[in-house]
Amino acid sequence: MDSKGLTGSPLAITGTFLDEISHDIPSANWGCEDWAKDFAAMRQDGIDTVILIRAGYRDRATFPSKVLAKLHPTLIVDEDLVALFLGLAEQEGMTFFLGTYDSGDYWLQGNYQAEIDLNLAFADEVWERYGSSPAFGGWYISHEINTFDLGMMQVYEQLSQHLRCLKPLPILISPYIRGRKQFAQAISLEEHEREWDQVFARLQGKVDCVAFQDGQIDFAELPDYLAVNAALAQRYGIACWSNIESFDRDVHIKFPPIAWPKLRFKLEAAQAAGVDKLITFEYSHFLSPNSIYPAAHNLNRRYRNWVKSLSLQGSNDDPNNSDNG
To answer: Which CATH number is 15-315's, of 3.20.20.80, 3.40.50.2300, 1.10.1740.10, 3.40.50.800?
Structure first.
């Protein structure tokens, strides 16, 4: 493996979410040295993009935000993780996307304007504190949807307009498919296509990248949904990434690292659909050699060996390769 990491295969995962403000997976309780070690591992595995999944959630924050402290006087924050992640991203040559704030309340209750107003002020604060970092290369609107929602279109539209005024960086969203692994009333492929045709028609020119989560539907259905997602995104000029979930939804505990055959299936399905980039939720817990889960260490080893074997195979098949001359 060279210093650039696993970059020789189109099946390599090149982006990951950073999930330190979570509501459904445990904290690794890492400090600065632990994060530095993991960023180095990410780079070795070919990751060039890191996405902070949310800079704050309810009463928790990744830095001591004055804006959020007005809403939550007892704000739970330890150290400035945004500064730490930006510094590590710069050190490792990565692009950092900053996730917005999720109130866990306003938008879920239909009070969309309150969610918007809070995020506008929060974005201003974020940009004032961190906008000069050379690693700050994109925004992630952290609110996740699965179908067309008029109120959420307003959230996306007003937020994206404001973020572009601060600096016209790429804007990413990561919606999910209303699949049977989460919902009793799952959406059909035809309904999904109609819904997202409406969404993309509204978000054209406002969102640059979409990374659908890939874990909510059966594996047999996944290739068809990935193909629809890629075709719709291309129609509206939006880059189509795939959010490869590296955790397993099929077991009875939340959530262990995924079984390697399932991860490989999803990687191959995403490539077959012609997506532009593979990212994961998320490396540090489920795919890292430093993970708190021993099974993730094994998954990382199998993933690395597989991508390396594909890269070597590609080199051997290249008629311009000097070894074949």
So the answer is: 3.20.20.80
